[in-house]
Write a structure and sequence with these properties.
It contains eleven helices and nine strands. It is an alpha+beta fold and 336 residues long. Helix 8 runs antiparallel to helix 9. The chain binds iron/sulfur cluster. The site of iron/sulfur cluster has 10 residues, from loops.
Length: 336
C-alpha cells in the first residue's frame, strides 16, 4: 500500500518527546548502557500509542487492552523464525522482550510484585527490536533531537538499513496494513495530525496473513515462559529499562525455542539460542559472536549520556554505524 515515508520514520522511533513542551528526557531505556532517564510520569501519561492490538486478546478473544511494562510506543514484534534469523546473523543485541501487566490477578502470574499477563499460567511476552537514542530530525525539523530510534534506522536518511534484506521484519513490511485491518489508528495518521502533511496515501491493503491472530499467534509471535520463577528480577528490570544481556537471553531463548500453535519448548533450540545471546558477554566480540549492532547500541547510549543535552548532527551515524559495518541506505533521491 502507498505511504509517504520520506522524512518521517514515525513508526521507527518514539517521537512523543517532540510533542512535549520543554521535554529533556529522550534516552531510550533498554538496559545494558540503556540508562533510565524517562520519567515515571511520562511512562504513565496515557499518551502511549500502539502498533498492535492487545496480543493476548488476539489469542483469547478478550476485549480490552493491557499495558506493557516497557515504554516503547512502536514495539516491532518479531516472529519465532525472525528471532532465530537475527540470532543466526549474530544480531542478538538488537532484540528485547515485552511483558504486559495483567488486568486482574486471575489472568496473571505474580513476578517481582507485578501481576504479569499470562497464558495457561505462563508469563506472556513478545520479542522485538531495541531503540537506542539517536540524533534524528524527522518531519522536516531543522535541528535534531535525541529520540529512541530503532537500532536499524539510519538517522541521516531516516530509512531502514535492513529494508532490502532477509531480516526485514514482516511487521515493518506490512505496516500500516495491520493497524487498518484491526481498525487501529496508524502512525501515519498520528504524524499527519501532529505535524501535518500527507503520509497515509491509501487505505486499501493486501492480505494480512502475518497478523497471526488467535491461536496462530501462540508460539509464533506471542511467547510464554514455562518457568515464571526464572523471571524474578527480570520483570522489574524491564519496567526500569535495566535489562541485562542475560535477562534478554532467557526470553529470547524461550522465543526461539517455541513451537507455533503450542506451548512446547525445544530444549535444543533453547540452549542454542541462549548461547548465541550470551556468548559475547565476557569476551572480545568476534565476527561470529557479534555484529555491528551491539557496539552501535552501546556507542549511542554513551554519546547521548556524554552529550549532556548537546545535539550532534545525524551525520555522526557514519562514524557510529556505517564504519562498524551497518549497511548504508540509498537516500530518497535514489528512489525517485
Ligand atoms: S526494522 Fe526498519 S522499518 Fe522496522 S522499525 Fe526498524 S528501522 Fe523501522
Amino acid at each position: 500500500m502507498e505511504v509517504n515515508c520520506e522524512g518521517c520514520a514515525g513508526c521507527c522511533m518514539d517521537w512523543r518527546p517532540l510533542l512535549e513542551d520543554g521535554s529533556e528526557s529522550t534516552e531510550a531505556k533498554d538496559g545494558e548502557n540503556g540508562g533510565d532517564n524517562a520519567s515515571s510520569s511520562d511512562r504513565d501519561s496515557g499518551r502511549r500509542h500502539r502498533r498492535q492490538r492487545d496480543p493476548i486478546d488476539s489469542a483469547t478473544g478478550d476485549a480490552s487492552s493491557r499495558e506493557p511494562f516497557d515504554d516503547d510506543p512502536n514495539f516491532v514484534a518479531l516472529t519465532r523464525d525472525e528471532v532465530r534469523a537475527f540470532l543466526e546473523a549474530g544480531m542478538a543485541d538488537a532484540l528485547t522482550p515485552r511483558f504486559w501487566a495483567a488486568r486482574n490477578e486471575s489472568e496473571g502470574v505474580g513476578v517481582d510484585g507485578h501481576t504479569v499477563a499470562a497464558i495457561a499460567g505462563r508469563p506472556a511476552f513478545f520479542v522485538g527490536l531495541r531503540k537506542p537514542p539517536k540524533p534524528v530530525a524527522p518531519f522536516g525539523r531543522e535541528e535534531p533531537t535525541w529520540l529512541p530510534s530503532c537500532v536499524f534506522l539510519d538517522p541521516t536518511t531516516l530509512q531502514c538499513r535492513i529494508h532490502e534484506s532477509d531480516l526485514f521484519p514482516d511487521e515493518c513490511g506490512s505496516y500500516p496494513a495491520y493497524n487498518l485491518a484491526l481498525e487501529q489508528e496508524t502512525e501515519c495518521e498520528r504524524v499527519e495530525a501532529a505535524v501535518g502533511g500527507d503520509r497515509l496515501l491509501e487505505t486499501e491493503y493486501d492480505d494480512t496473513d502475518g497478523l497471526l491472530l488467535g491461536s496462530q499467534a501462540l508460539g509464533a509471535k506471542l511467547f510464554s515462559h514455562p518457568r515464571p520463577a526464572d523471571l524474578e528480577g527480570i520483570v522489574d528490570r524491564t519496567a526500569a529499562g535495566e535489562l541485562t544481556r542475560r535477562d534478554r537471553a532467557e526470553l529470547i531463548a524461550v522465543a526461539a525455542a517455541s513451537s507455533p500453535g503450542t506451548l512446547a519448548i525445544s530444549d535444543h533450540h533453547y540452549e542454542w539460542a541462549k548461547a548465541r545471546v550470551i556468548e559475547g558477554e565476557d569476551a572480545e566480540p568476534t565476527a561470529e559472536s557479534e555484529s555491528w549492532v551491539g557496539p552501535v547500541i552501546r556507542d549511542w547510549h554513551e554519546r547521548c549520556r556524554e552529550a549532556d543535552g548537546a545535539l550532534p548532527s545525524p551525520a555522526v551515524a557514519d562514524a557510529v554505524e556505517v564504519e562498524r559495518g551497518a549497511p548504508e541506505t540509498p537516500g530518497w533521491d535514489a528512489l525517485e
